[in-house]
Amino acid sequence: MYKLVMAVGALTLMTACSKQPELEQRTESAPTEATSSLAQYKAQAETLLADIRIEKDAAALEAQSADLVTLSRTLLNEFVAKYPQCQTYLDALDKAADIIPTLPLEEIETGYHADGKLPKFDDPVCYHAKDLLVHPATVQAIAMKGFSGAEDYKSAEMEIVEVIAHFDQVERALK
Q1: Which top-rank group of organisms is this from (predicted)?
Q2: Are 130 and 90 in contact (CB under 8 A)?
């Protein structure tokens, strides 16, 4: 009888222990909305970069960069939820998101890359989030005007290389 009780107890304990890590693993791997948006943004940015490097046509690159701008707006909202000190700065950017790609590249540079048309901010973390929208919007503007040669593709490539660097900072800030 004693051996039977011990065997049942051992089996119960092993069963309980073996199921616990699965539960913890499922909980840890369940993506939050921010994690899901971050993964999607990174994948889309990397795809856009690869497509720029193979010099896909302007219409395709315009659509891809526009999709990345749209996704960045979702990330900016998630970012403001965690960093409310960035709200005024990022809200101003969000309001301009639809017009940025229609502007001349020089105006995008001075107004949005260099913050000339955006309110001042105190926390440097806000700057990295801004660039998740501005860089793909710049690529969208380049694509809308049309790629006239290798130099335009190189400019677009550098925009996405830079946004991926800013993305790493934003990803760390949101995790």
Answers
A1: Bacteria
A2: yes
